[in-house]
User: What shape does this take?
Amino acid sequence: MKLSRTIRNTLALLFITTLLVPATLRAAEKEDAMNFELTSSAFTHMGAIPALYTCEGKNISPPLAWKNLPKGTKSLVLIVDDPDAPDPAAPTFTWVHWMLYNIPPETAGLAEGAGNRPAVGMQEGLSSWSRGGYGGPCPPIGTHRYFHKLYALDTVLPDLLSPLKADVEAAMKGHILGEAMLIGTYRKKGG
Assistant: This one.
């Protein structure tokens, strides 16, 4: 049985389409994740964090805003940490300053000072001070970098009961749709 040229061309087109459509969808999802953005009206990426948000100021959390969440986002996780502790010239550990999880995806940001009151509609993890809430930059020596990392997840995490950073990272594994990062710097006066 010989197929007509039209049928052969149609079948070839269908075959090629079934190969290309998933790749095109994956590329669109990847672009979504690349457009995911975290910003602050208080400082720019790699800019200095104002003293107001540190141990030398009011020690309140800075305002944060995000946009372009990846499609399918069910919750967000925010981790703020300092990989330069205690000395950027010889870092030995990462100090966790703030951690929130199960942030609702319809939330577009966190207001200034949001980390200094109980989280409503989301859950807190423990900082390196062994408590929930925000703890501002207070580097003992040199200029430190403060990574504000926002993860979009395809799930809502279970109640992890005041987790450490490693617990939240383990729970997120396999569920991250995208990550947005904002890095601020701080050096104490005379430090």
User: Anything to note?
Assistant: DSSP finds two helices and nine strands in the chain. The two ends are 84 Å apart (CA to CA). The beta strands are 37-39, 47-48, 64-67, 75-85, 93-103, 109-110, 123-124, 144-153, 176-186. The first strand starts at residue 37 and ends at 39.
